[in-house]
Design brief:
There is one protein chain. The chain is of the alpha+beta class. The chain folds into two domains: 2-216 and 329-410, Zn peptidases (Aminopeptidase, 3-Layer(aba) Sandwich), CATH 3.40.630.10; 220-327, Alpha-Beta Plaits. The chain has eleven helices and 18 strands. The protein has helices at residues 2-19, 27-31, 40-54, 125-132, 148-166, 244-253, 294-315, 331-336, 338-350, 365-371, 395-410, and strands spanning 58-62, 68-72, 82-87, 102-104, 112-114, 117-119, 137-139, 175-180, 202-205, 212-214, 219-228, 270-278, 282-291, 318-327, 356-357, 378-379, 383-384, 392-394. The protein has an eight-stranded mixed beta sheet, with helices on both faces. Strands 4-7-18-17 form a four-stranded antiparallel beta sheet. β5 (112-114) and β6 form a beta hairpin. α1 (2-19) packs antiparallel against α5, α5 packs across α11 and α9 packs across α11 (395-410). The chain binds zinc ion (ZN).
Length: 422
């Protein structure tokens, strides 16, 4: 019983400590190669570095680019090591400065009114479910995000390590951890210290609702389409002017209307124009292409090329298309290494959780790492409504995430551990 109480209090305390550290990342700085993009991330890293050392991890260090690494040595298990991963930055979409977390103990329903935000279980099915189970909910005060994305994941990993450290009777292989900066900017794996990493597989703890298990994400490309026109005096333009702005506008309005982010969900891919700029002489449209299948992505790329060509011919100008790969669906590499996901599924089941396989309509550090040859599925954190003032986390679901992690680390001989939330 003592352990059960300890894990709850220490997990909560740890999570509250982390969310109060302002570690929002800055995509402009990250895009220009500055890593970490903000100094708050260094503060998070130094707190974590000290904690990992106190929990018996070895070779603990924060790299020049703010990755915190450590390894908990094996204590009798002959299995090969695994790595756990979470990110220390929060999204810049909503401020993460002066987060003032509110605890709603044994939440049983009703609107949660915050200043500047409102959580309504009638509009939020996950919240309504949490109310039914009388879970303890944590929110911000409505003026900031909460930062459960991904400080819930970080806190859960550290709590798992603490549990293993204080229960040496539980046999586990070596456990490596990496806490990475700048995930939200898309640069989270740019400087990952692969030279330190011994594990052949890893697990990110960066998902949402309890039970979610992610082994699939989008294939992602960015397309930049440049239209070239011909500028003349507007008074004498007839027959000579070719307007690159009109070309760009025609291109965007002819993209399939049913394949936009705002008109798709589930397994559907999309074309998302993200910027349009230019003059009569030259204009540029940038768009994101997303598709779960590799074939589908090839079709999207050729749709962009054909449409750009058709528009340029119609207007009598020119078009150039450049596709840049952003990340790939991790499914293919995970399918080649089925044991990685199987180990995780067994850990969910040992914790009494039926996994729900949700395809990620985006990418994670895990998808980038999978591409680099280290298969890396994603585990739920118990956080919800990420990147918003309505972000909340369930302490009960966070405890279950720790339970999954402990089972995952102990592997084959799953110990019978069930943490009681009460
Ligand atoms: Zn995240």
């Amino acid at each position: 019983m003592e352990d059960k109480l300890n894990i709850k209090n220490s997990l909560l305390e740890r999570f509250l400590k982390y969310v109060k550290i302002w570690s929002e990342s800055d995509s402009q700085k990250a895009d220009s190669g500055i890593m970490p993009s903000t100094s708050g991330q260094n503060e998070m890293a130094s707190v974590l570095c000290a904690e990992l050392k106190s929990l018996g991890l070895e070779n603990v260090q924060t790299t020049e680019h703010c990755y915190t690494y450590g390894i908990l040595p094996a204590n009798g298990s002959a299995e090969s090591s695994i790595c756990l991963l979470a990110h220390i930055d929060t999204s810049e979409e909503v401020s993460g400065k002066n987060v003032n977390p509110k605890i709603h103990k044994n939440y049983s329903g009703g609107k949660i009114i915050l200043c500047g935000a409102e959580l309504d279980p009638q509009k939020d099915s996950a919240l309504s479910l949490a109310a039914k189970n009388v879970e303890t909910i944590i929110t911000g005060d409505g003026t900031t995000l909460l930062g459960a994305d991904d400080k819930a994941g970080v806190a859960e990993i550290v709590s798992c390590l603490e549990y293993l450290f204080s229960h040496s009777e539980l046999k586990h292989p070596a456990i490596e951890v990496i806490f990475s900066p700048d995930e939200e900017t898309g640069h989270g794996m740019d400087k990952v210290p692969l030279e330190l990493l011994k594990s052949k597989c890893a697990y990110t703890v960066d998902g949402g609702h309890i039970g979610e298990l992610e082994t699939e994400c989008f294939n992602a490309f960015r397309s930049d389409v440049v239209f070239k026109g011909n500028a003349t005096h507007t008074g004498t333009a007839r027959g000579t002017m070719v307007n690159a702005i009109s070309m760009a506008s025609s291109f965007v309005s002819n993209l399939p209307a049913g394949e936009r982010p705002e008109t798709t969900d589930g397994r559907q891919g999309f074309f998302a124009p993200i910027s349009i700029e230019g003059s009569i002489e030259e204009s540029k449209v940038s768009l994101l292409l997303r598709d779960f299948s590799a074939d589908g992505m090839e079709k999207r790329k050729s749709t962009v090329e054909l449409l750009a060509k058709a528009v340029s011919e119609l207007f009598g100008g020119k078009a150039e298309v450049l596709h840049t790969q952003q990340y790939l669906n991790m499914k293919e590499n995970l399918d080649k290494n089925p044991k990685v996901a199987e180990r995780l599924i067994s850990a969910y089941k040992a914790s009494g959780i039926e996994p729900v396989f949700t395809p990620i309509r985006g990418g994670t550090d895990g998808s980038r790492l999978t591409e680099m040859g280290i298969p890396c599925p994603n585990i739920f954190t118990g956080g919800h409504n990420f990147h918003s003032r309505n972000e909340w986390a369930s302490l009960d679901q966070m405890i279950k995430a720790v339970e999954v992690l402990v089972h995952l680390c102990c592997g084959e001989d799953f110990p019978q551990i069930i943490f009681c939330p009460n």
